[in-house]
Write a structure and sequence with these properties.
Rossmann fold; two-stranded antiparallel ribbon; globular; alpha/beta
Amino acid sequence: MNKRSYLSPKNSKSRCNFYRKEILKISQSVPALHIAPAFSCIEICDLIYNHLIKWKNSKPDDVFLMSKGHGCMIQYVILKERKLLTEKDLKFYCKPNGRLGAHPDYGVPGIEASTGSLGHGMGISVGMAFADMAQKRKNLVYLVLSDGECQEGSTWEAAMMAGNLKLSNLIAFVDMNDFSGLERMSEGHPAFHPLSKKFESFGWEVYEVDGHSTEKMKKVILNRSNMKKPLVIICKTIKGKGVSYMENVPIWHYRSPSKDEFILAMKELNEK
């Protein structure tokens, strides 16, 4: 398959299936990793890296921040496919002398900021978007948030500033898988919903969409109606998406599959 065909929206499912298998392979070399949070935002990251970001000389010309740093396994896998990282980098994930940690660190190729301490990504991205706008640069800032970190006050302070500054060059995706660690957001924090109304009140253009459909998310961006506001896409996702025994099962926020569980997961993905 040539590069253009590989990156076509029609091949998103096969790409994302491949990414899930690559993350599973890495899981066999470490006792724990955040596999389910990465699986819930794979299609979101596929869209950003393979359809939205402008690339120049094999490097991203736009900015992408993974505010939900515990989802960074999908970043690492895609950055390796994009040749910013290497097979050796993935092999030494969370190992001595390796440069890839459980959360992304600034300085690693393709990583724009150290994240994982939740609630910081929105503020960083607002600062970057404002700087770009002030200097009349044409690039965009893409941000992926977890729904859990939308409990953080710092997220909303920065979101209000983005609305005040009319940062139309900022596009945020909320990975709304309805979990915060082991807890269901809808059960532990019922006042959290509707999230869309909160962003609207802060001056954002808001859409809700299936977060596992690359084409539907892309269509929202192409058809956005207001180019004077920041845009947030609330992506309805499933934690652990793609492996049935992981889906919406809280423990997979933290642990790696055993050898037998790995074989079972790979068999399921290979049949898709």
